[in-house]
Amino acid sequence: MSDSVQVYRRLLGYTRPYWRTAALALLAMAAAAALEPLVPTLLQHLVDKGLIGKDPQAGWRLPLLLALTFAAKGLVDYVANVASQAVAQHAMSDLRQEVFRHQTGLPLAEHQSRSHGRMLSSILNDIPLLSQALSSAWIIVIRDTLIIIGLTVKLFLLAWHLTLLILLVAPVVAILIRVASRKLRVSNEAMRTLAGQLAGQLEAGLSGVKELKIFGARDYESGRFNQLSEDLRRASMRAVRVQSANVPLVQVLAALAVSGVIFVVMTLSARNLLTPGEFFGFVTAMSLLFEPIRRLTNINGTIQSGLASARGLFDLLDQPLEPEGQGTPLPAATPLQPIVFDHVTFSYPGQERPALQDFCLTLPPGQTVALVGSSGSGKTTVAQLLARFYSPQQGAIHYGPHDIAGLELRSWREQLAWVGQQVVLFDDSVAANMAYGRPDLPREQIVEAARAAHAWEFIERLPQQLDAPCGHNGLNLSGGQRQRIAIARAFLKDAPVLILDEATSALDNESERQVQEALNTLARHRTTLVIAHRLSTIESADWIVAMDQGRVVEQGRHAELLARGGLYARLHQSQAQGGDSQD
Ligand SMILES: Nc1ncnc2c1ncn2[C@@H]1O[C@H](COP(=O)(O)OP(=O)(O)OP(=O)(O)O)[C@@H](O)[C@H]1O
Ligand SMILES: [Mg+2]
Question: Which positions, given as ranges, span the membrane (predicted)?
């Protein structure tokens, strides 16, 4: 319970900047609550003065007042609704932005350990649930509580003994609500987990749609999806049953209370306690109580599921981010420094076998060092550690005098440009993908980079040229075209350290030769780490390092390594025999 209070308080913290609107909403709710007891009061006078007392003025004045009361009620209800929705929507938009920003700032290890579906679902499913808990729940809890208080005061003023009789039912209602909220909490947690899995399944099914078709996995994937969908239905129905049982129970209890009151007034000597008008007013006020009580008990479900979502979101937000701004910033005009891997040992989270073991490597400033080795030997891992996506468990990576672990992350990554093994393009225009994150880069510069990466040839032929959409994951383009855009992106970043992980693997021989020339130009005056399976592309590197199982096996220049007849020579020979194969 106290945990729920804490979570709700933290959630309310998001409404603080909008306290003015929230105050307006509260004011409107208070007005709505104050107007509510006016109705039974007016009816009471209508009976006593209009019908029994035959007061001629009451004949027109009371109906007029009644109409005005309802008009005023309508107005304040409107204001209360709109104002509290405005607060909730503002708060949710802020929270949504914070969650997205936080998710993208989490360390890679954290991304690896969390399911993608769960992360998608926090923005797509959790935030709307939260918004309900903040807006409608908020209105209902505050306004209806005020209304209930107002009506109860009215009842007390009319006949306090009868009111006490009704209040006897209150503890029973309270116990019912407690039991129900515990049950709801459990099924809401289950629903959140399932919704996350469903989102993950959906994402996997849609992004892998080609594989799904070719491998005839439609039935298999639908089967998994259907199973989750059914589980979600069952969990939702459990919550619905608990929530729906609340309503009739409260109504039955309320009806019992009314019948009790009528019985007492009719049969016992209480008849002379109340005028007919007061009696009418009393019963009206009582029946007006049902609706807010029903809403209040029902809203518990909404609040519970909102709290379940909030708990999950806050758990995510409490995960520490990569320390982007901490550490020593690199001075703006730092000359190129040597990069040294000093006895680095690293295993991926949850992995026992190290991906790199006692790994030593020096990248002299301005030179090109190539990493070769069989698949899984740890080449990409070297690049990932250099980019500080992960940190070594032993040893260190130095950039001149600095341990890169102590450098400010942002300024370190500014030194790096990367063309990765899997090209990632965003669902945006060709130009935006090349100038990624820098929308105000001049067009001429983008065109120049596109020419340098030999991408201009095909971009020129696209109907919308630079504004052509790349499609989800760059699906509108061929593999080689995507790769050339990624290379142009690296050109545009113009960073001193260049990482090329299989940067030309998707190109045919002719384009590869051209792009390779461009990359050689780009690599000039930069420190370059190039990873390639096709050894012909790295023959001219200043230094070649052959890796196996996370260790350096041999290193030297192309001719020396060939002469030595070791791993490099073997790799080279097998490629020479197998033609220009990629593996
Ligand atoms: N994110 C990860 N989590 C766990 N293990 C990983 C991860 N990425 C790579 N590995 C493991 O680390 C080892 C080295 O992988 P790495 O990607 O560095 O190989 P590589 O030399 O780049 O191979 P390839 O030539 O196929 O790209 C492999 O055994 C791989 O299974
Ligand atoms: Mg790799």
Answer: 58-76, 127-149, 155-177, 247-267
Return residues with CB closer than 5 A to ligand 2 (ion).
380, 421
Q: pLDDT tens digits for 44-81?
A: 888 887 777 777 776 678 788 888 988 998 999 899 88
The answer to whether position 339 is within a domain reads no
Residues pairing with 501 in the sheet: 531
Is residue 334 in a domain? no
**Which ligand gives the minimal distance to the CA of 112?**
1
Q: Which atom of ligand 1 is nearest to the CA of 502?
A: 27
What are the structure tokens assigned to 298, written together? 């029902």
Residue 175 neighbours by CB under 8 Å, 6+ apart: none
pLDDT in tens, 416-473: 888 887 778 887 888 888 888 877 878 888 888 888 878 888 888 878 888 878 777 7
Residue 341 lies in a domain: no
User: At 408, which CATH number?
Assistant: 3.40.50.300
Same domain, 100 and 159: yes
Ligand nearest to the CA of 371: 1
**Any atom of ligand 1 within 6 Å of the Cβ of 421:** yes
Looking at the structure, tell me whether residues 394 and 253 fall in a common domain.
no
Domain interval for residue 431: 424-494
Q: In what order do the strands lie in the sheet with 356-363?
A: 356-363, 339-346, 394-399, 402-403
Contacts of 462 (CB under 8 A, 6+ apart): 430, 468
57 lines ligand 1 (CB under 6 A): no
| DSSP designation for 335 | P
Q: How far is the CA of 544 from the centre of ligand 1 (A)?
A: 20
Residue 87 has pLDDT above 80, yes or no: yes
389 lines ligand 1 (CB under 6 A): no
> What is the sign, positive or negative, of the torsion defined by CA atoms of 458, 462, 467, 469?
negative
513 & 485 share domain: no
User: Any idea what the CATH number is for the domain that residue 113 is in?
Assistant: 1.20.1560.10
Instruction: Report, as an integer, the average pLDDT of 179-186.
Output: 74
Do residues 396 and 474 both lie within one domain?
no
Q: What's the mean per-residue pLDDT of the chain? A: 82
Q: Whose CA is nearest to atom 3 of ligand 1?
A: 348
> Do 89 and 189 fall within a single domain?
yes
Is the same domain home to 146 and 289? yes
Distance (angstroms) between ligand 1 centre and the Cα of 577 equals 26
C-alpha span between 386 and 392 (Å, rounded): 10
Token output for 477: 């383009």
Q: Whose CA is nearest to atom 22 of ligand 1?
A: 380
Each residue's pLDDT tens digit, 243-275: 777 767 777 777 777 787 777 777 765 556 777
What total number of domains does the chain contain? 3
